[in-house]
Amino acid sequence: MPRRLLTLSLCLLASLTAVFAIYAQDSDKPDPEAEIRQAPRVIDRRQWRIGELIEDIAFTDISGKAGKLSDYSGHTLVIFTTNTTCPLCKKYLPTLAEYEKAYADKVKFLYLNVTEGETAAKAAEVVKAAGLTGRYVLDPKADLGKALRADTTTDCFVLDASRTLQYRGAVDDQYGIGYSLDKPRVSYLRQALDAVLAGNQPIYQATWAPG
C-alpha cells in the first residue's frame, strides 16, 4: 500500500475512533429530559404493607374534631397525603374533589398533611378552593403517615371496609415531575377503587407517586 494512502487510512481510523469514544461517553450520561420527566411507576407491593391491617390511628382534623380510622369501618377509605404548597398536590386536589362526587356514598376521603409548620387556617383555604368534602388532618409528627409508610405528597392509600391496605401510590399518570398531560393514560386510583368495591384485588397494588 502506498505510504500516502496508508497515512490517510490511519488518520481516518483515528478520527472514527475519536468520534465513537465521544459517542460512548455521551451515551453514559443521563438524559436531562428523562431526569425531570418523572412519572408514576409500578413498585414492589411487598415493601409497602399491601394486604396488612392498618393500626387504628387517632387524629384531630382541622375543624378540631377528633377521630380515628375505625370511624370508617364498613367503608372503603382513600387517604391522600398532601400539603398546601406542593405544585402537584394543587393539581391533584380538584381531581380528588371529582372522585368524591363520583364515589359519593361508596367511598370516604381523608386528606393527610404531614408537613411541619402548616396551619389549620391555610389548610382550610386549600380545602375550600379545591371543593373538598373529606376531613383534612394535620399530622406533623407523621403518626398516621408512618403507619402508612407514606413516601411522598400525592401518595394515596385505599383501605377496604376492614381497614386492610389494598392500594398505595399515584392517583393517575396525568401529572408528574416535569410534565403534564391533557388527561391521564392510566387511572390507578379509579382502577383500585372499582376493584375493591367489587371485592377484588386491584391490578396495580403499589406505585410510586411523584410529589
Would you mind describing this structure in some detail?
The protein contains six helices and eleven strands. Residues 1-35 have low confidence and may be disordered. By secondary structure, it is α+β, with helices and mostly antiparallel strands. It has helices spanning 3-28, 32-36, 87-102, 120-130, 143-148, 188-197, and strands at residues 41-42, 58-60, 66-68, 76-82, 107-113, 135-138, 156-159, 165-169, 175-176, 179-180, 207-208. It has one domain: 3-Layer(aba) Sandwich (Glutaredoxin), CATH 3.40.30. A hairpin with a 5-residue loop joins strand 7 (156-159) and strand 8. The strands form four sheets. The protein has a five-stranded mixed β-sheet with strand order 6-5-4-7-8.
Q: In summary, what is this structure?
A:
With 211 residues, this protein is of the alpha+beta class. It has helices spanning 3-28, 32-36, 87-102, 120-130, 143-148, 188-197; strands at residues 41-42, 58-60, 66-68, 76-82, 107-113, 135-138, 156-159, 165-169, 175-176, 179-180, 207-208. 35% of the residues lie in helices and 19% in strands.
